[in-house]
Automatic annotation (TrEMBL):
Belongs to the RutC family. PANTHER family: 2-IMINOBUTANOATE/2-IMINOPROPANOATE DEAMINASE RIDA, PROTEIN HMF1-RELATED. It comes from Croceibacter atlanticus (strain ATCC BAA-628 / JCM 21780 / CIP 108009 / IAM 15332 / KCTC 12090 / HTCC2559). GO terms for molecular function: deaminase activity. This is Putative translation initiation inhibitor. The lineage of its organism: Bacteria, Pseudomonadati, Bacteroidota, Flavobacteriia, Flavobacteriales.
Amino acid sequence: MKTIITTDKAPQPIGPYNQAVLNNGMLYTSGQIALDPKTGQLHLEDISSETKLVMENLKAVLEAAEMSFANVIKSTIFISDMDNFGKINDVYGSYFDDATAPARETVQVARLPKDVNVEISVIASL
């Protein structure tokens, strides 16, 4: 059975999608970008702070599903410039324990929504 997960602690969807869907113990999050959930403003000052806000938005969605980053089994990172990989990876990695970190792919793309530099989604399991 599909359950829609929503929280006001992460940005609200700007299209025909939800923040996350829980189905048979698996949580599928929509991609998060550096939108401040309180103001709706983008935060693109530097790639490290941008990535931190993305991860905090994901954390809020996970918490709304009564999960944490420990439940994440797979993540996908889209970046606009592979030269930012190291800084993104440093922030991203601070949210996981190396021994139990999820599977992941990182892909450079030509363009992301609202011209952000990074978008991340995760799949988690109860």
